[in-house]
């Protein structure tokens, strides 16, 4: 189902219902680019820590826009042994809803736009019909401006009992407006008067003059033409009608502000966080998240699936030993045909990601004794995959752990090398030619990690650089230790300097964030699509209970993280209790486990 600005509100109840009823759902996104700096391949290193990888990708992706958001909800029909799907394709765009709302600046990457265009992506629909959104701070500021404007309007009569001062160059203009209004008031048959478009300053002078000169009997409002020209309309009204129109205007502005909030709460809450906050916010919003790429890259799938890109994965899971799931679209929802391959439409990508999850989950069930033909999204069989996100091109850390500390491999076979900017990969191979097979992972123009095949040769390599003038070699442990020392010194300096500032300034309460809340029981994630990794997605969630965001809201004041920590601890406790209560025949540990390293 295609969702744009014009049908967003009317279809919102269907979206809420689909989420509430779903056993799990899949989501996907299409963006205006992936990196505003170096290419992702050049930007990342095979020996990035999860923190470093997250910061690198975040630094070079914050100014891109989400153009399209796809959601596909899956619910299993036990009577007919099939999954029923409800798919939604949202076009989103942060169009300013008023002159005072944020005018967002964003970046486009030419290769990304060219790729989307080649896939038939409808950019006109994004820019002309996209659903707007605001982040939390923008929403707070606009609501404050709205309340202040309302307050000033209510007190306008008290403020304008005396004539306003009109600049000399505007007096003739205001006199002409007053003359038109006087003539309008004397003609009983005419109920409205439209003034010619004018500047914002002139409209302000008109409002101030009319509120003083005609405190009763007329209603004044500013309207906008199709050409974005703003003009004033004056209507003859009694006091009761004037109050009614003011109330209608207030309700309309309030509704417009609510409509403008859109997708912001989830999107910007994640985008504005650092790594730990990102983990806690993600598990708070999506307590059970599963990455299908990680799942497909792990035993028992690793040996039978060669390509984990979404398009190729979907094709492979139709073949032996997998069994394609039976699915059909719910009544009133469009169906997708995988033979037509509508790749890079967010709704379709979310749909086939969900199919991939079902096929892999059911395959795990086939390994049990006796076999299970349909594995629920709540099954313990898939517990090992929850809340782990696949990390691409990291040699020894396969995933980002959302529920706790990330893996910390020893890396005692890795060296950190600094060298002149003119050096190339061939120079590094020549330098380490005596040490056999090596792997090189560039950090920047003057440094790289070099992995040796034999850890006992590390100290020999370090010793060779003691008297070298053009390059330096140190162990990975030495590199990390010096980096941590530098951070501690910087942090201490920052803390000491801010302590001095804090002593000199009054206490100001922290910002208050207002966000809709809902709980989710299971999510599966799609990380990359073939042939282009631009779409980052999170997939597959099973609903324990979704509440209407309009009805249930949570205020995060100053620090929203403790609640996220509580939920993460609660989830861990539930998983531990769940594991202890399970039967041996359904235990995932008997079949497989997500490895620490590959």
From TrEMBL:
Query: What name does this protein carry?
Result: Poly(A)-specific ribonuclease PARN
Catalysed transformations (reactions): Exonucleolytic cleavage of poly(A) to 5'-AMP
Q: Which PROSITE patterns match?
A: R3H (PS51061)
Which Enzyme Commission number(s) are listed? 3.1.13.4
Protein source organism:
Rattus norvegicus
* Keywords annotated in UniProt: Cytoplasm, Exonuclease, Hydrolase, Metal-binding, Nuclease, Nucleus, RNA-binding
Q: What general EC class does the enzyme of this chain belong to? A: hydrolase
Q: Which family does it belong to?
A: Belongs to the CAF1 family.
What InterPro entries does this protein's entry cite? CAF1_poly(A)_ribonucleases (IPR051181), Nucleotide-bd_a/b_plait_sf (IPR012677), PARN_R3H (IPR034042), PolyA-riboNase_RNA-binding (IPR014789), R3H_dom (IPR001374), R3H_dom_sf (IPR036867), RBD_domain_sf (IPR035979), RNase_CAF1 (IPR006941)
The listed locations are: Cytoplasm; Nucleus
- Name the residue ranges with Basic and acidic residues bias: 532-544
